[in-house]
Design goal:
Number of helices: 11
Domain DHHA1: 235-320
GO molecular function, one term: nucleic acid binding
Protein name: DHH family phosphoesterase
InterPro entries: DDH_dom, DHH_sf, DHHA1_dom, Oligoribo/pAp-PDE_c-di-AMP_PDE
Bound molecules: guanosine-5'-monophosphate, manganese (II) ion
Strand order of the largest sheet: 3-2-1-4-5-6
Shape: globular
Domain DDH: 21-162
């Protein structure tokens, strides 16, 4: 992979060099995507810059405790006529993750790509991609320091939210001493860890529980009990009166089962379109599986979108997963 990487200094210079920015994260944004995008926004405000922060699709309301949440535009509902010469993309594993927001780029626009996915293909004109970072927010912390930004509670909250959510509450193997050091610094600016954890990790919607109840009935072990999978259909969503974001986290019920190496969830976002989420323990790098199916992510957490029915999506995933796992479906 091309690793002609920018330095933190170059990223900080990018912020100083331009005056008006388009800031974006990825489709179906999570806590790191949203915390990082709003963290960039707060940095630009401090530098006296103008910005528009846009995503294709809605940002989950669970993140509405973050500063400037009300500035996030959903391009599907609030189209924009303007195009932008300077773009900052955060937490986007590849170009396609930016979705239709790409239609707002002026031709030849300068694009700062800040990300931590090992599958990132360096789609920016300036690429600050660090796969060793636990979260994009961790990289942003360094950029903010380099740019001489004054940390305050609001900025600290954005960065902390990215760290907390992408480490699963400081539990995953990406929780390094450095993550904890940065988190400790952020707490010193007034972030209330109990409140952030409550909003991001503990609180669930009733619709989520209703989707979960239906999904658990589909849970099955396969491949010699090394794989656990779960499925949610469009019918499940309508009967639970749930939104897509209400299906978040289902894949963990699969991966967490004792002895399971790979957990997979198949979520039918719309008829004929299945969002696949994969979580691995040790044996398989699921980012490689997802990449073969047009997606990407991390070794232990990845995703992709597959066309077809849930049954067809399953078959496509098994076809790629089986050689990596070394076990066939009915063994
Ligand atoms: P999730 O399963 O929670 O949606 O995503 C897990 C990880 O895989 C995240 O790091 C996410 O960014 C990445 N990911 C999920 N879906 C896709 C996709 O369609 N393409 C790429 N490149 N990465 C994805
Ligand atoms: Mn991330």
């Amino acid at each position: 992979m091309n690793r002609n990487q920018a330095t933190v200094e170059e990223a900080a210079r990018f912020l100083r060099e331009h005056n008006r920015f388009l800031v974006l994260s990825h489709i179906s944004p999570d806590g790191d995507a949203t915390g990082s995008a709003l963290g960039v926004v707060l940095m630009l405000e401090q530098l006296g810059k103008e910005y528009v922060v846009v995503n294709e699709g809605e940002t989950p309301l669970k993140f509405n405790f973050l500063p400037r949440f009300d500035r996030l535009r959903d391009l599907r509902k609030q189209p924009l006529a303007e195009t932008f010469e300077a773009v900052i993309a955060v937490d986007c594993a590849d170009e396609s993750r930016m979705g239709d927001v790409r239609s707002l780029f002026a031709s030849g626009a300068a694009l700062l790509n800040i990300d931590h996915h090992p599958t990132n293909d360096d789609f920016g004109s300036v690429n600050l991609v660090r796969p060793e970072a636990a979260a994009t927010a961790e990289i942003l912390f360094d950029v903010a320091e380099q740019a001489g930004i004054a940390f305050n509670e609001e900025l600290a909250l954005c960065i902390y939210t990215g760290l907390l959510t992408d480490t699963g509450g400081f539990r995953y193997s990406n929780t390094t001493p450095r993550v904890m050091e940065i988190a400790a610094r952020l707490l010193s600016y007034g972030v209330k860890p109990g409140e952030v954890a409550e909003r991001c990790l503990e609180e669930i919607t009733f619709a989520h529980v209703k989707v979960l109840r239906r999904a658990l009935q589909t849970l099955e072990l396969s491949h010699g009990s090394l794989v656990a999978s779960i499925a949610v259909s469009v019918g499940d969503f309508s009967e639970a009166n749930a939104q897509r974001e209400d299906a978040g986290g289902l894949v963990n019920y699969c991966r967490n089962i004792e002895g399971v190496e790979v957990g997979v969830s198949f979520v039918e976002a719309e008829p004929g379109v299945v969002k696949v989420s994969m979580r691995a323990r040790d044996r398989v790098d699921v980012s490689a599986i997802a990449k073969q199916l047009g997606g990407g992510g991390h070794a232990k957490a990845s995703g992709c979108t597959v066309k077809g029915t849930i049954a067809e999506a399953k078959q496509k995933v098994w076809d790629v997963l089986e050689p990596a796992l070394g076990v066939k479906h009915d063994e």
